[in-house]
Amino acid sequence: MSSPEAIANPIELPLVLKRAKIQGIGIPPEVQQFCVENNLSEALSLAQKFVKHCFSEIQALKLRLVVGPEDDEKWVEINIIVPDTANFLTEYNNYTRLLVAEIPWPERNMLRFNFSFV
Q1: Where are the domains of the chain?
Q2: How confident is the model at residue 26 (pLDDT cuts 50, 70, 90)?
Q3: Domain 4-117 is of which CATH architecture?
Q4: Residue 16: its pLDDT value, please?
Q5: pLDDT given at position 2
Q6: Global pTM?
Q7: Cα–Cα distance list, 44 to 38, 40, 101, 102 (Å)
């Protein structure tokens, strides 16, 4: 049986469920909200999975919401810190191939990758 709140507001229920699905993985609230508003939860989850799969020595992985200074365009930045190894370029190319193959445009444009070497 549906609760009175679900009947009164059927549109918000899926958003609440999506938000709950991604809350437990260390995603800042502003990134969560952006993902819910832009239907990016699954794409972000895939991108994180690809990062963890492709890069062998991740020392940190952080997410943040970035607003472009010129046009207020928004995107999620996936930032990793890794050692500068001989394999980095190969790992980066593998990540990019997976991302392009599995996440369609324009969702892919709202997920951007950044890295720093230790």
Answers
A1: 4-117
A2: confident
A3: 2-Layer Sandwich (3.30)
A4: 39
A5: 41
A6: 0.76
A7: 11, 6, 14, 11
